């Protein structure tokens, strides 16, 4: 009756995601991020050194950091460690006593531990909206979009997405920030959400979201002045005091911010990677690399 031992599998990437039926735009000012049931108890059913869990945790941590730095509320669901028979009700028939048999594993895994300002809600049913103030909380925060990540995909994550949709809250399932009982069930979850109850995105797509440029205008990240202003703002430095030959890591630029820049450049057809940027992490080196790459794109377009 309990959860079975869960096999690892390769986390789906954006190339594996189904086609979305809707074309909603993720808007950070309207969104909240739900970290679903990432408790030690539920994680423990995967292999200890599971590559799937490492990828999941890395992506959830990156998403949480992005949300915290962009004013997006972070909300957790977590089942309580003491659940009487009446509270569990039919869950007993399907899954047995659950957390009651391992109360020491009730906490959220350390890498994702809730911080000051985060919201933690008791979880009682598959959907995070059932027997919880989640909808009221979102309304109070003025949020009508919900990013969803965590475990398990085809159970709580999917039911929460469907429930959100039926409450006119737009669910965004982060396809590489959930894990499931199997790859097949993971893919089924994404297919259902993309076709019936929401929109599927990748971690990189969320982190790379920026306001769209004006029509025919060159994006600021592809202009010298625009990129300089962007990076100076990221490291909280005045432009006139910013040294373009100084190490950007020493300035405080972190890997999440670099990943967001790479994602944005790729959206505009400019392919650079983390290794190239890390060779010499200065503004002048990065600009020279971007100029070279943009010129190659132009030449290829003329062939």
From TrEMBL:
Molecular function GO terms recorded: isochorismatase activity
Catalysed reactions listed for this entry: isochorismate + H2O = (2S,3S)-2,3-dihydroxy-2,3-dihydrobenzoate + pyruvate
Positions where O-(pantetheine 4'-phosphoryl)serine occurs in the chain: 255
Entry EC number(s): 3.3.2.1
Pathway in which this enzyme or protein is active: Siderophore biosynthesis
Protein name: isochorismatase
Cofactor: pantetheine 4'-phosphate
Carrier domain mapped to chain residues: 218-294
Cofactor binding description: Binds 1 phosphopantetheine covalently.
Keyword Phosphoprotein listed: yes
InterPro entries: ACP-like_sf, Isochorismatase, Isochorismatase-like_dom, Isochorismatase-like_hydrls, Isochorismatase-like_sf, PP-bd_ACP
Major enzyme class: hydrolase
A Pfam family recorded for this sequence: PP-binding
Record PANTHER family: ENTEROBACTIN SYNTHASE COMPONENT B, PEROXYUREIDOACRYLATE/UREIDOACRYLATE AMIDOHYDROLASE-RELATED
Keyword Transcription regulation listed: no
UniProtKB keywords: Hydrolase, Phosphopantetheine, Phosphoprotein, Plasmid
């Amino acid at each position: 009756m309990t959860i079975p031992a869960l096999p690892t599998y390769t986390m789906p990437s954006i190339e594996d995601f189904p086609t979305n039926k809707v074309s909603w735009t993720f808007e950070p000012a309207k969104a909240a991020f739900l970290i679903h049931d990432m408790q030690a108890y539920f994680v423990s059913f995967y292999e200890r050194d599971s590559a799937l869990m490492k990828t999941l945790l890395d992506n959830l941590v990156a998403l949480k950091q992005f949300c915290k730095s962009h004013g997006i509320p972070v909300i957790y669901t977590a089942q309580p460690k003491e659940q009487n028979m009446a509270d569990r009700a039919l869950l007993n028939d399907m899954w047995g006593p659950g957390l009651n048999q391992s109360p020491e594993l009730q906490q959220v895994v350390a890498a994702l531990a809730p911080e000051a300002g985060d919201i933690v809600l008791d979880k009682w049913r598959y959907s995070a909206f059932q027997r919880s103030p989640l909808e009221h909380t979102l309304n109070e925060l003025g949020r009508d979009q919900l990013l969803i990540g965590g475990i398990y995909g085809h159970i709580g994550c999917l039911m929460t997405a469907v429930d959100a949709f039926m409450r006119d809250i737009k669910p965004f399932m982060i396809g590489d920030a959930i894990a499931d009982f199997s790859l097949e069930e993971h893919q089924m979850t994404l297919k259902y959400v993309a076709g019936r109850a929401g929109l599927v995105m990748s971690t990189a797509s969320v982190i790379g979201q920026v306001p769209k440029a004006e029509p025919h205008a060159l994006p600021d990240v592809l202009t010298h002045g625009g990129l300089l202003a962007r990076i100076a703002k990221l490291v909280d430095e005045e432009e006139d005091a910013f040294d373009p030959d100084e190490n950007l890591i020493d300035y405080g630029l972190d890997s999440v911010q670099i990943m967001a820049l790479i994602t944005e450049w790729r959206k505009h057809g400019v392919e650079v990677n983390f290794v190239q940027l890390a060779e010499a992490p200065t503004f002048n080196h990065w600009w020279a690399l971007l100029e070279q790459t943009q010129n190659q794109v132009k030449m290829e377009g003329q062939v």
